[in-house]
Specification:
alpha/beta, six-stranded parallel sheet, 15 helices
Length: 510
């Protein structure tokens, strides 16, 4: 493949690593590039005109993964004059100019706070035939004001805040994403309504700590998270989502146990479209380890929240995050984690082996554990979690579930003749289509009966009880992705960028 013909749009590809925040940021990157005239490359295209890496600094070996992928791209770029490579996200915010030093064939490096600058930086790098590195220390534009190309016709992320005010010793996010900044409720609800108008049925309210939403504003503009009637701003936001016609499911992630209040539980239980699913990170069941992690809650409080959630919503599915092998964790500490897991009865758990993250306090703590100790505990934790999740899933055999049909959730669907989706409580359902084969689309709603349980999913192999066609399904069938326009606040529109001639020197010539 050669560069795009003069006057024709250049193609792009975004490669995403990490958390939901990064996934949603990549939707914004796609929206920005398409507004600037770029066209998404076909999946089979190995030589798009622009490749953007949206990186994560939290995952183990994130640096090695990025530089390995950049190395693979170097010969592709050498054979493709005018190709550009951009690196953004948390690792770019952390490493800054180091990326261009290690990989001088990279054209653009941008941080978590200036996603909106990407089209301008790409154009400037092409014009100057030199790398452009722009890292801001704080947000220039709230990301949700940027145009967004949504990846799903039926479910959408909606950011309610960015950044984090916590100081967990294992986490580098606050230094890369900055202090928490909250969006106004009216702006959030406008975005939700815009998605629903596009046919979206489910939204997930997204923040590093959704329970602290509203700390920066109150009824009279004073810093105060409590609002009318003693309810928190986040509880009020959940209730307001319940008034949006056509919005069938509301989820949120992630809450922090230290800020979890009873009014949020009440809002979940009393707002019909808020799903009875809760992802609440535990991290450790040992109070000593929680103290070392600087997690300002203890296991008793955590289990107390779960007890209240289940009292209000007996059908609630609760999931969590757990870190094994934190510095100084003893056998007794680990056993306390297993005790909490057994008492909490999680429907699923994301489990991680602790590994050092440069720049975090935990990386320099005494008591770093040998790999084999961490591995052995990790395997025991997995075994414990799966025993519980399997037992909890077996309780649902024979129950009727509402499934929002999804794309790509079932790797074996083509071979087994099933489709897949999520129940209202978030569980993964693989279901037979029966006489409705060929009629059910992603985004449609199906009711079916659970016939089999496994630790990580449920099967429903009988005839579906009902099938409802939806606007989201219509959009999926038409291949139409929802787009929210955003407001660019001064960012210029570039139009369709013409292909650049092969530069005589500079970064792109490497």
């Amino acid at each position: 493949m050669t560069t795009a013909a003069a006057g024709s749009p250049r193609t792009y590809q975004v490669r995403t690593y990490g958390c939901q925040m990064n996934v949603h940021d990549s939707e914004r990157i796609s929206g920005l590039l398409e507004q600037a005239g770029y066209v998404r490359a076909a999946e089979a295209d190995e030589q798009p005109d622009v490749v953007v890496f949206n990186t994560c600094a939290v995952r183990e070996n994130a640096d090695n993964r990025l530089y390995g992928n950049l190395g693979h791209l170097r010969p592709v770029k050498d054979k493709h004059p005018g190709m550009q490579i951009a690196v953004g996200g948390c690792l770019a915010q952390k490493d800054r100019g180091e990326i261009v030093r290690k990989a001088p064939w990279v054209d653009v490096v941008f941080g978590t706070h200036n996603i909106g600058s990407l089209p301008v930086l790409l154009e400037r790098a092409r014009h100057n035939a030199a790398a452009e590195v722009e890292i801001l220390e704080s947000l220039d534009v709230f990301p949700s004001t940027l145009p967004t190309r949504r990846e799903s016709t039926y479910a959408g992320w909606v950011s309610i805040s960015v950044g984090c005010n916590n100081t967990c010793t294992f986490c580098i996010v606050p230094s890369l994403r900055g202090k928490e900044k909250d969006r106004r409720p009216g702006d959030i609800l406008s975005e939700v309504r815009a998605l629903v108008d596009e046919g979206v049925l489910e939204v997930t309210l997204l923040g590093q700590n959704v329970n602290s939403y509203g700390v920066a504003f109150g009824d009279a503009g004073e810093p105060n998270r409590k609002r009318s009637g003693g309810r928190s701003a986040f509880a009020e936001l959940l209730r307001a989502c319940g008034d949006i016609e056509g919005l069938e499911r509301v989820r949120f992630t992630s809450p922090h146990p230290k800020d979890f209040t009873d009014d949020v539980i009440a809002a979940m239980a009393e707002t019909p479209n808020v799903c009875h699913s809760l992802h609440m990170p535990l991290q450790s069941g040992s109070d000593d380890v929680l103290r070392a992690m600087r997690r300002s809650y203890r296991s008793e409080k955590y289990l107390g929240i779960i007890e209240k959630v289940r009292a209000a919503m007996p059908d609630a599915a609760i999931t969590t995050d757990i870190i094994v092998g934190f510095p100084g964790e003893t056998d007794a500490d680990f056993e306390k984690t297993l005790d909490v897991v057994r008492e909490a009865r999680f429907s699923s758990a994301f489990t991680f082996q602790y590994s050092k993250r440069p720049g975090t306090p935990a990386a320099t703590m005494d008591g770093q554990l040998p790999k084999q100790v961490v591995q052995e505990r990790y395997e025991r934790l997995i075994s414990c979690v799966e025993e519980i999740t399997w037992a909890e899933n077996k309780k649902l055999v024979g129950e009727t579930v509402e499934v929002l049909v999804a794309v790509g959730e079932g790797r074996k669907d083509e071979r087994t003749g099933r489709m897949s989706g999520r129940a209202r409580d978030g569980r993964l359902i693989h279901f037979a289509t029966g006489s409705l084969a060929g009629q059910i689309r992603p985004g449609d709603i199906v009711h079916t009966t659970v016939t089999y349980a496994a630790p990580h999913h449920l099967n429903a192999d009988g005839e579906p009880l009902s099938h409802r066609r939806t606007r989201a399904g219509d959009a999926a069938e038409a291949g139409r992705a929802p787009r929210t326009p955003g407001v660019l606040l001064g960012l210029p529109t570039l139009g369709a960028p013409a292909a650049a001639p092969a530069p005589a020197g500079g970064c792109a010539a490497h």
